[in-house]
Amino acid sequence: MVIKxxxxxxxxxxxxxxxxxxxxRAALREPLRDLAAYHMDAxxxxxxxxxxxxVYLTDPVPENLPxxxxxxxxxxxxxxxxxxxxxxxxxxxxxxxxxSAFDEIVEAVYGRCTGCGRCGLNxxxxxxxxxxxxxxxxxxxxxxEVPPNLQAVVDNQINTGNQxxxxxxxxxxxAAWLSEDLQLETGDEDVRIHVDEPGKRVFYLVNPREVKFFxxxxxxxxxxxxxxxxxxxxxSKFYDVTNYGLYSxxxxxxxxITKQVMDEAARLEAxxxxxxxxxxxxxxxxxxxxxWLGEEYPIRVRSILEVMLExxxxxxxxxxxxxxVERVTLHDPCNLVRWGxxxxxxxxxxxxxxxxxxxxxPNREQNFCCGxxxxxxxxxxxxxxxxxxxxxxxxxxxxxxxxIIATPCHNCADQLLELNKKYSLGVEIQAVCELxxxxxxxx
Amino acid sequence: xxxxxxxxxxDNDGFMVAPELWDDEVARxxxxxxxxxxxxxxxxxxxxxxRDYWKEHDLAPPVRLICQELGVGVRHIYKLFTAGxxxxxxxxxxxxxxxxxx
Lengths: 443, 102
Prior knowledge:
With about 450 residues, chain A is mainly alpha-helical. Chain A is about 50% helix and about 5% strand. In chain A, helix 15 (about 280-295) links the parallel strand 3 and strand 4. Residues about 1-15 of chain A have low confidence and may be disordered.
């Protein structure tokens, strides 16, 4: 079901604080259009959400309670959208939304929360705290008060087509370089990174981080596609699987980012969009995108995990788990698993391609956030907290005794790299497709 | 961090607040935090290349350029800088944190 939203036309005030506040108040009406309005009023202040939250567990101060973070948003919602809040705001703790309120909201919904949704899943009354937090981010974005380093990433996506402002020439040069290396490595002259080829079945999106700093997962995906005989291409301009509008709370920007990519898929006449391993990118393109655009996509969108599992189950690729002998565990990205519903393909794949795959505990939809989600990695001002909150994940990893952490998310991978360093875990972090590529049997 | 007579400040991500204060001694001190006991010739080659590129373009270079210009493999870079080219090598080179998912 698509919930029609008119947010795409929402004006973005730039300079006038009066207008900014008016737009922010308007954004508070957003949840009324869906079930989130119910969640706004649901909290009974039991406080049990504390122990579900990696931020609270590693720094148990009252302001880190998920309920307390949500309350920073709810009090303004109540002021305008409940009868008592309108008439006698002091009775229900309702608060006027003024320009001076944004610092506190920003601190709560960006600075102390990754929007991982674990508290909402475990809430004693079923309140979707993550949805309330995101509404808070909608409000902040409508007032153009998003933390600047996070906003810069959104701006890059809109102005250049990708979050790292990589030029078209650079993308092409990188694709050529990787293709050459891959041909040398595999001895297969025809394997390559396909770019701007119309009429291919699959239009593949990647995280610009793969292009600029960590290309082994892109090479691996190309190798797996080749082994499966897949017809695929990237675009040299719109290939970015991420959507920082989800993190910033700027739905009109998120809609534009979605549209530029889906238009490119149509231009290249692809039959299917396949998303590289990216948690929030999956949630954005697979689930949120149609809501942002206000219409269904004309073509299917899947994660490469689902596609790779299909290759294995249909016998399109041959694999040998004996090629991955070190113990592997899996970190579940919140946006892919808890929010996105893709939980089993990555497990089935790892069980098939590695000879010693173990789960960390808890896992699947109960998995803890690594601490790097919600745009945290781009907001240096919260770097200390981010690393501190990752202690929960570090403990989970250590308990598995694994040498390799597979994670289908480049954002998580960066946080895990840092946790590896700060908590001396002595592990290696890989994308799932790298393990698949390594296990390929090529005849 | 005190390096010689310089007081070096870092942001919450560990990147230099004032990149112009960077010198070889500062690089060595950051490298030590990265678990690099001694900066080898390859470490220096990469760090200096990143530094020069950044001075010219105000951007961190893509890993492709580092590999092609210096003739090193990408896996070798990950071995030398275990936190990766961005949070590892760029940090040692005294750059501000690159934008985005890194």
